[in-house]
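Side project, low priority. Logging it here so it doesn't get lost.
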Amino acid sequence: MSQYHSSRSAVIVGSMMTTDRIESLVHVRWLDAHSVGVGWQAADEIEDAPCVVCSVGFLISAAKSGHVVIAQSVTDDGAIDHILAIPVAMISKVTVLSDSSVGSVFPFPT
């Protein structure tokens, strides 16, 4: 049985959704949890530098509470792939690369 969710005039059925939920192309700069060593070490040998990650994808609106959700790929029927949910508290900056909705630039003319 499929579960249906609605938000902002979009309907999601399983992993398929209308392109109404797919918004801008964005660049997200965020801090990731990471390993700071490969084995036993002294506490004063822990590197203080953060692990800064930059990710680019299509912003999926209202997908997961407390997260910015982006997808790497979108098909012309609204299927999305390589979905990344980044906790809002870990984000340092979001830059909109294209403020056009996917529908206005996708699908590309053939």
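Brief comment: The longest helix spans residues 102-105.
Revisit when time allows.
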